[in-house]
């Protein structure tokens, strides 16, 4: 499904049985970001429904032994017909910096383009500087920190990228593949 992964990794769409496996890695993969409150926040952001009703636009990557290596949970906006949304993405820290996150996004961009989506949106916590650097590197534009975006005390940075081909070359996400 994704053909530009590091050797040995394979991808597929998730199923409901993957829900518990993904929840089990969140705290380790996020490095305990924001402590106990962060752990609760993360678990509540990924209820089982995402592994039941959003599977065709979500992706899971596994090692040869079946161990979870990375995931992306995303969907098509119900409200905005040209928008898709990445809700949650994570890569095993042992695999960071090998292009797995970028490969997940490229695959997602490809999937949602076939559904006529031009823009991809996502959000992250102001504390998650790695996520901000990653999304910026992939061509996303960030807003300033938006206080209480997701509720009292839940500040967020919002990102968007335009998937349309640029007049002077390939579309933004493809351009970032060969960077800078
Ligand atoms: C953010 C995350 C998904 C990146 O995954 P990854 O597989 O390491 O990223 P990639 O190797 O594909 O990197 C893609 C680009 O982003 C850059 N990048 C990735 N992480 C970065 C970091 N921490 N700081 C600076 N740049 C970073 C890479 O240098 C690369 O740029 P380049 O190829 O142009 O040199 C991963 O660090 C992660 O899972 N973090 C914990 C969970 C999380 O915060 N998820 C996002 C919020 S929901």
CATH homologous superfamily classification: Gcn5-related N-acetyltransferase (GNAT)
Percent helix range:
25-40%
CATH fold name = Aminopeptidase
Mean pLDDT: 93
Radius of gyration: 16 Å
Concise summary:
This protein is of the alpha+beta class and 180 residues long. It has helices spanning 19-29, 35-45, 50-53, 100-113, 129-137, 172-178, and strands at 10-12, 59-62, 68-76, 83-91, 119-124, 141-142, 157-162.
Protein model, in words:
The chain is an alpha+beta fold. It has one domain (10-175): Aminopeptidase. Helix content is 31%, strand content 22%. The chain has six helices and seven strands. Strands 1-2-3-4-5-7-6 form a seven-stranded mixed β-sheet, sandwiched between helices. The longest helix has 14 residues, at 100-113. The radius of gyration is 16 Å and the shape is globular. The chain starts with 9 loop residues before the first strand and ends with a helix. Coenzyme A binds next to strand 4, helix 4 and helix 5.
